[in-house]
Specification:
Blueprint lengths: L11 H6 L22 E3 L4 H13 L5 E6 L10 E7 L2 E6 L2 H17 L7 E3 L5 E5 L29 H11 L5 E3 L12 H15 L4 E5 L4 H4 L11 H17 L5 E4 L16 H12 L5 E5 L13 H6 L10 E6 L23 E6 L15 H10 L7 E5 L15 H12 L5 H12 L8 H22 L31 H5 L5 E2 L18 H6 L9 H4 L2 E2 L10 H26 L5 H33 L14 H5 L21
Bound molecules: 4-O-methyl-beta-D-glucopyranuronic acid.
């Protein structure tokens, strides 16, 4: 093997020599130009192949040539690729399509940056055909649950003015295998389906196409009434059917590879087929038929819960499970990972695996609505891996992630939250990757680029990322507690929250059920019976307090304060210890970050440091709020190893946060770090 062709670990001095400029986080994991001008051989030319060649030419280090070849290897499918190790002074990258070659090019660059050697053949085939980001972006530029500025899509400027960030965005996605995007909020404005907006959407689709990305739109089910002036949106009404058919024809004329529609129907006030006494299947299939001739898909969300007396965690199952087998083959039911709503920890949604004749996809949330938003560092790969430990990814047809992207320079608000966008893409490509592999990849591409960091520090930063999700669960909602959030903004704790006229299932007391006897939601056979929706062996495991894992105990059981835990502690003491552990874990994160200071760009260091201060203070806020409040029920003292509260309950009850103006208990405006 030609030694020059080895993808050697590039000495730190090479990185140091590269002009990094001031850090602003905008580069993401995208390769930087090296000036080496590598030799790239490609006998076929297409826009995408030329992009692959350009990426390699600009960023490949060393003088080994790379040959890009189209192949006919059916096993590789549309997006797969194969990379042969160096021979005769060149590396050969083959794929069946030009987008496969682009993915392979990014793989090579990633490997080189990580210092991995190319000494055996690499074959990569993504598990999912559709790897899609959902943007909850409104047409006025705001983002529902967005914490990184305003929407990237500048609808007022499009189609005339095209921001260079659209291309950067597409590149960043292609580099991690994301191949689809829903541009607008599931709480959808019909306006996106007007001719004026379709033209704007088409402009974005033109840019994204080169990077293998298809555009989808969230559709408002009442659009035939709102835009078409029809008196109904009944999916079985001929005029409605015709309206959608014509709308699809119109869209495909402008966007021939349009992906399809995402629909939130009959949920949280959105219109849907049930308004006309039709089922979700009737609604989804009507749209599916309009899209079918063009090859489009419907992603129909199962996130529904009505104000009934029944346990909210059961409702999606109750409504959707009976519809199994009724959906057309170009419909996928898009199901949130858990049965409630993106809580720090939830069991899997029992709909998974229960509708065997229906295509299902999972919806993860990348934006940290319930996880400290852009103030807290919470690396989400471990949470998604936990889900894939319960639900076989091979049983799913696609995977969606609610984006954490806005128009901030660094795209994601918290600079380290870029890792969650990255992790989503990598897991959507290969759910078997470990959280550690993903963290190490991302850190090599972002944090260590330009800095000679000792292994010890690298390891502690990796550990910091890997432990961050469990830390957040501990300081927010350990042992299966959930939805203790303040009303509306979901940032801080309000386990006591009560609002005149609010739906009970929007209030924390519905979920924690704390009383003088104990705490937790009894979903066992003696309670709401939500356990009965789970397949075996989970049904049995979760139903029995002896076998129910500690980390989901209060999700499934209401237990006395002095209940003896597996650790030997009382439930109350165990709860207190988790809150304490969460607070300590954040302090440890702060210390880890401090130890890395000499090796990290000063601006990046400071930005993360400031956010960790907030996270640490918020952890204490969570601990005090929950323990002081629940202590009023348990009437038990804090165990000795748990630090005394720094706040009073009365003071915490007076904390009122605006939606974008997060005022911590100390009175400092957290928003100032945004
Ligand atoms: O997570 C909750 C959010 C809503 C969101 C809804 C949904 C887009 O609080 O903001 O609306 O779920 O997923 O539809």
């Amino acid at each position: 093997m030609n030694s020059k062709c080895i993808l050697a670990f590039f000495a730190v001095c090479v990185f140091l020599a590269s002009p990094l400029g001031a850090y602003n986080g905008s580069r993401l994991w995208l390769p930087e130009k090296t000036g080496d001008q590598a030799t790239i051989l490609n006998d076929v030319e297409s826009t995408t192949i030329l992009l692959a060649a350009e990426e390699l030419r600009d960023a490949w280090r060393g003088d080994c040539a790379i040959e890009l070849k189209l192949s006919e290897d059916t096993a590789l499918g549309r997006d797969g690729y194969v990379i042969a190790p160096p021979a005769d002074g060149k590396i050969t990258l083959k794929a069946n399509t030009d987008i496969g070659l682009l993915y392979g090019a990014y793989h090579l660059l990633r490997m080189q940056r990580m210092g991995h050697e190319l000494n055996k053949e690499i074959r990569e085939i993504p598990l999912f055909d559709v790897r899609i980001l959902n943007h909850w972006d409104n047409l006025d530029g705001t983002i529902e649950r967005g914490y990184a500025g305003r929407s990237l899509w500048k609808w007022n400027e499009l189609p005339d003015i095209v921001s260079p960030r659209y291309r950067d965005y597409a590149r960043a996605n292609a580099a991690i295998g994301i191949n689809a995007v829903v541009l607008n909020n599931v709480n959808a404005s019909s306006k996106i389906l007007t001719a004026e907006y379709i033209e704007k959407v088409a402009k974005l689709a033109d840019i994204f196409r080169d990077y293998g990305i298809k555009v989808y739109l969230s559709a408002n089910f009442a659009a035939p009434m709102q835009l078409g002036g029809l008196h109904t949106a009944d999916p079985l009404d001929d005029d409605v059917v015709e309206w959608w058919r014509e709308k699809c024809d119109e869209i495909y004329k402008m966007i021939p590879d349009f992906g399809g529609f995402l629909v939130k129907a009959n949920s949280e006030g959105q219109p849907g087929p049930c308004d006309f006494d039709r089922s979700h299947a009737d609604g989804a299939n009507m749209l599916a038929k309009a899209l079918k001739p063009h090859g489009g898909l419907v992603m129909w969300r199962s996130f529904v819960y009505s104000p009934t007396d029944d346990d909210r965690a059961k409702q999606a199952y109750l409504e959707f499970n009976p519809l199994d087998g009724q959906f057309d083959d170009n419909v996928m039911v898009q199901i949130k990972n858990g049965p409630v709503d993106f809580q720090p920890r939830e069991p899997f949604n029992p709909l998974f695996g229960s509708m065997l004749s229906t295509k299902q996809m999972v919806e993860f949330q990348i934006t940290q609505e319930y996880l400290g938003q852009s103030n807290h560092l919470v690396f989400l790969a471990p949470m998604w891996k936990e889900f894939f430990g319960w639900v076989n990814p091979r049983a799913l047809s696609a995977v969606a992630g609610v984006a954490n992207i806005g128009d901030n320079d660094n795209w994601t608000g918290h600079p380290l939250a870029q890792s969650n966008w990255y992790a989503f893409g990598r897991l959507a490509w290969n759910p078997d990757l470990s959280s550690r592999e993903i963290a190490e990849e991302w850190l090599s591409l972002i944090l260590y680029d330009g800095s000679p960091i000792p292994e010890l520090i690298k390891n502690s930063i990796t550990e910091m990322m890997l432990s961050s999700r469990e830390a957040a669960v501990d300081y927010m909602m350990p042992l299966g507690l959930h939805h203790l959030f303040a009303f509306g903004h979901h940032y801080g704790p309000e386990p006591w929250c009560w609002r005149e006229g609010a739906r009970p299932d929007w209030l924390p007391s519905y979920y924690h059920q704390a009383d003088s006897v104990g705490i937790g939601f009894n979903r066992s056979e003696s309670g709401s019976k939500a356990v009965a929706q789970y397949p075996q062996p989970y049904r049995e495991i979760y139903n029995n307090v002896e076998t129910c894992p500690d980390n989901l105990l209060l999700w499934f059981h209401h237990l006395p304060w002095d209940f003896k835990m597996k650790s030997g502690l009382t439930l109350w003491n165990e709860l207190c210890c988790h809150y304490e552990r969460g607070c300590q874990a954040v302090k440890k994160m702060q210390a880890t970050w401090k130890s890395a200071e000499p090796y990290i760009d000063a601006d990046l260091y400071k930005d993360v440091e400031r956010r960790l201060v907030i996270q640490s203070r918020d952890a204490e806020w969570w601990k005090d709020a929950c323990l002081l409040y629940f202590g009023e029920f348990s009437q038990m003292p804090l165990p000795e190893n748990v630090s005394a509260p720094v706040h009073t309950l009365d003071a915490l009850k007076n904390v009122k946060l605006g939606i974008t103006n997060y005022e911590a208990p100390s009175g400092e405006l957290l928003d100032s770090v945004r």
